[in-house]
Every structure is written in structure tokens, then in C-alpha cells.
Amino acid sequence: MNTLLRRSFLPVFNNTFRGSCRSFADAAINEKIDKIVKNNKVVVFMKGVPDAPRCGFSNAVVQIMRMHAVPYVSHDVLSDENLRQGIKDYSNWPTIPQVFINGEFVGGCDIMLQMHQSGELVEELKKVGIKSALLTAEETKKEMEKK
Amino acid sequence: MVYTEEYIKEKLTKELDAVHVEVTDESDGCGAKFSVLVVSDKFQGKPLLARHRLVNSVLQEELKTIHAFTQKTLTVEQWKQQ
Question: Looking at beta carbons, which residues of chain A come within 8 Å of B48?
Fold first, then answer.
């Protein structure tokens, strides 16, 4: 009788307990990410760090940011398993890297690359008061031509 | 589950009413790295992020094991211009 009771009762207890523990952790990481993306104009969640990206896609995003001379905060998802899953849940986006501008999810590597190529990125950065280095370079060139 | 180019092509074509789909397995056969081009009028009027989200949602299950995924999403008109 005792075993039977345990068998039927324990799994339920275990599931509920684990379930609530997990959602508690989820809520904590969600809140943490929310703070990070809202307190910084540009945030990149990537594999590795800007000086040593550990994935080609993350590297591509770093290079784009460098080209535009964008000041940004980066977070390495490889050093934090909670963050790695948490960021995917937060933005409902399945892959890393992920870029946020002004608290809004902008996209991953493909989108950043296409926005860079189309000139849209320069505009998006302008909206949040960041002047792309490519724009500055272009203006300098025009100035030189005038003279 | 290892996904093939054909499998992904068929699924995207069907779910997105795509007129043209190109799928390339860039993983040397382990099925974890793909790049796709999808041409569909379901992308009409949708910004890039929404288009990519649409593709991601079709491959929600598959993307749990596909490690690297590159996509290009065009409307029929954009495709013709290229």
C-alpha cells in the first residue's frame, strides 16, 4: 500500500515541484535579459567575445558592428547555459547571435547582414542617436571632393 | 533525426506556398547546417524579421537540431528582379 501510494503520488509531487522551480528560474533570467536590453542602446548576445568570437555568425555580427563603429554591450552565451536558452525564449528566436537595439530584437546574422547591405542599419542606428562610421566616412569624402 | 535538403525543401514549399525554394546542406552531410532561399508571396508586405520568423515557425521542430541556419526570403517580384 505504501509503495503504491508513493508511486502514484510522488511523480505528481516531483513534476509540480520541478515545474515551479524551473519557471522561477525562467522568470529570473527573463527579467535579467529584459534589464540588459533596456539599459543599453545596442546589445549583442553571441558565442565568445568580440575579440575572440567562437562562431562564424557571431564573428560576422562583430565585424558589422566594427565597420559602423557601433558602441555595444556583448554577452557570451557559451559561458552561461541559462542565458543561452533564456535569450532564445525571450526573443522567440532559435539561433545565436542576436542583436537588440533600444530594447527591441532586431535579428540574427542574416538580418544584420542584409540590413547592412541595404543601408537600413545606418538608419536604425540614426534613430537611436548612433552615427555610423560609414556615414562619417562618406561625408568626409564628399567634403574632400568639394575642396 | 537527420534532415535532408529534400525534406526541408518539401516542407517549406508546402507550408509557405513557395514558388521557388533552394536548400543547401552546408554540413557535409550531418544535417546540422543549412542555407535556404525561399520565394513566396506570403512574404508580401512583411518586414525582414517577420519573414524570417515565418520560416522559423515552419521549421520550429527541425531548428532544435539544425545548428546553423541561413535564410533569404524574397517575394516573387523581388526574385524576378534579381
Answer: 107, 111, 114-115
Residues A44, A72 contacting (CB under 8 angstroms): yes
Cβ separation A110–B64 shorter than 8 A: no
pLDDT at A4 over 60: no
Q: Residue written as cell 533552394?
A: B22
Are the CB atoms for A99 and A107 separated by under 8 Å? yes
**Does the structural domain B5-76 have CATH classification 3.30.300.90?**
yes
The CATH number of the domain holding residue A138 is 3.40.30.10
Q: What pLDDT band is residue A114 in, cutting at 50, 70 and 90? A: very high
d(CA B20, CA B74): 10
Q: A98 lies in which domain range?
A: 2-146
Q: Which of B46, B52, B64, B78 best probes binding to A when mutated, by most A CB atoms within 10 angstroms?
A: B52
Is ipTM beyond 0.90? no
User: Per-residue pLDDT tens for B13-53?
Assistant: 999 999 999 999 998 767 789 999 999 999 999 999 999 99
In chain A, the number of structural domains is: 1
Within B1-82, strands assigned E span: 20-25, 33-39, 68-74
Three cell numbers written together for A74: 556583448
